[in-house]
Design a protein that fits this description.
The structure holds 2 protein chains of 2 kinds.
Chain A: H1 2-20, E1 22-25, E2 42-48, H2 55-74, E3 83-89, H3 94-107, E4 112-113, H4 119-132, E5 136-138, E6 152-154, H5 162-175, E7 183-189, H6 192-199, H7 208-214, E8 218-225, H8 233-242, E9 246-253, H9 255-265, E10 272-278, H10 281-284, E11 294-297, H11 303-307, H12 311-326, H13 336-355, H14 360-370, E12 372-374, E13 378-380, E14 395-400, E15 403-408
Parallel strand pairs in A: 2-3, 2-4, 5-6, 7-8, 7-9, 9-10
Antiparallel strand pairs in A: 1-3, 11-14, 12-13, 14-15
Helix pairs in contact in A: 2-12, 2-13, 3-4, 5-6, 8-9, 13-14
Chain B: H1 2-31, H2 37-56, H3 64-84, H4 89-111, E1 129-132, E2 135-138, H5 139-161, H6 163-173, H7 175-180, H8 185-210, H9 217-220, H10 222-232, H11 237-257, H12 263-277
Antiparallel strand pairs in B: 1-2
Helix pairs in contact in B: 1-5, 1-8, 1-10, 1-11, 2-3, 2-4, 2-8, 3-8, 5-6, 5-8, 5-11, 6-8, 10-11, 11-12
Amino acid sequence: MRKTTVALATATLLLGFLTACESKSGTDDGAAPAPAASGEPIVVGSTLSLSGAFAATGAIHKITGEAFVERLNAGGGLLGRPVEWVVRDDESDQAKVSTLYEQLISQDKVDLIMGPYATPNILSAMAVAARHNYTMPQHTAVIAPLLTYECQFPAWSIGPTPNEFVPNQLLDAVASLNPAPKKVAILTNQNGSTDFVSYGAGNNKTGAVSITKSRGLDLVLEVRYPPTTTDWAPIAAQVRDAAPDLVINSGLGVDPVNLLQAMAQLKYKPPLMFSLFPAPGPPLGLGPTSEGLMSVSIFEPNQPTLAKLPPVATEIVNDFKTRATAANLPYTVFETQAAASWNAWEILTSGVKAANSVDNKAICDSLHSSGAETTFSGKLTFDPAQNNFWPTTSTIKQIQGGDWVTVWPADRAAAPLKGPTAG
Amino acid sequence: MITVQAALSGLLLGGLYALMAAGVSVTWGVLRVINLALFGMMLISAYLTFAVATAWGVDPLVTLLVTVPAMFVLGGLVQLTFDALKITELNSLLLSFGLLIVIVQAVSNIWSADFQRMAADVNPYATEAVHIGRFVFPAPTLLAFGVAILVIGGAHLLLRRTFAGRAVRAFAEDRTVAATFGIDHRKVGVLLAAVAGAIAAVAGMLFSLGNALTPATAFEWFGTVFAVVILGGVGQVAGTLAAGLLVGLLSGVVSVTLSPAASPFVLFSAIILALLLRPQGLFAVRTVVR
């Protein structure tokens, strides 16, 4: 009897958990569709990492997607029909991603799909999309050479060779400083995307390490660390002893926070530091310790940047802030991840409008032929020969006065890049 | 020089590992309960530390006044539930894993899945360190080390030198015989689980001093904590401290002499070797009778 009770309690807990893993947006979430939108809803299916390792960023994509769908329905829907977004929690598990996309397409028969978040999950979803010939916009996959399915459309492009573009753009930027850095330390998280930017992949072994050397800079330290690293003190001590002018951290999440904190405990701060894909909020909490930190970005809502965009961009940015605040997100700024998410939805809807249909083949073809208009990255064009990775709009951002500011290239900068003495 | 520094830093971090593992080890060894909910209690305490310190602007250490009693009660309640359900060792793993999932989801709903971290103005410890000559002792891990010595050392003395401690040890050795001598196993069990909860609260607070938090953090602790529990010997309090320090030391030294990437490989290879040579744990004084 007691065994039965335990089994029932466990099953109830699991059932409750699984039920909580699915949510819907659009017509079912209480937001009234616009009068002009009528008929059967167009159903968009996707997964997001709402729990697990990628959940911090998954939450941003969920809020952005909900805001987009609500705005879309308020504006008359898509092809005159309301849009319903079914999003399931893939728990940051790429095995679950495949299963859930298979269910969405084969069983739920969704009309359209949207890609998940994070490169490994996107690669899993892409295989399912390719099998069923679905068009799949995807938010943020970095390893461009692996994204060979012709109907996947990136919403954040660092070009077809990010492993070359990112280091070159950074080193161009810091070369503009006086004095320019000469000694470089490269610290690489062994996650797929970050390792790719440092060391390349497949036949292209170019990356931050080889580019640093080929530009005649002195590579004084090279460290690869596992994603599970918890003890940052040894790495920090190695950096201090190597005394680089520039630290390139091909890192993720809170890696730069942990590194800067460990270095601060040694009473050391590198003159310049760059981190590839940090969570944007935590470094700001470090105060002066993180001042001057650089990273990549496709959008920061700096006033000079917003002034160049239509007013709707400011509306979207403000709406996101309200929603993110309500969702208790600690960092409520509409920046790279949210902009990439917004781009992805605009790619999907541009394709549907151009095809005047929800036929996935027609959508894919129309995106190849007509591209997509986006609010934050302008007109995008897709060349299958480049795996649809459009000419990059990626920039360098820097923490200045406690906020992220776009600083490079100069024609898109909201403020000049600051050197070590200006921090 | 850098190797010595890495060894020192690793030793200090090992104190935190030991604190995180202490409750798991004791409840497993004595109560025969593999209580994964303790990871949830560490998580809740870490978040409460963040929330209370941030909202009220108090020193993070002061938040122990909130988290220790709360987790003491929660730890006891979980054990009462296990007792009421007459749960087996394996079922305790399943049920407490379910409980951990619920806690992680609740934390995610309350504080979001995004990274949370105490700002520099409320957490002065994060970037502080004690400097002795060329050597540096980071404040968060130095505190963890000191607290680990106090808490685990104190627990060890209590178990060895007091009647309650002898009761716990007798209970661990043979429940039936202990009961015939008037030891109320339920009371002892609930008290022990409550103390494990309180230690989890301390570990959670100390973790939050030096780290950003996400709900998934709880799962990231599994590998290291169970490594410490197994190396130290299940149920061996002092062994947990020694194993925690060894794991921290080994990780730190391997990080600088080989590579941080080699650290998990060396650590878990050492654990496999240790299990082959001393399955009862490297630091087990004697095997707990099962």
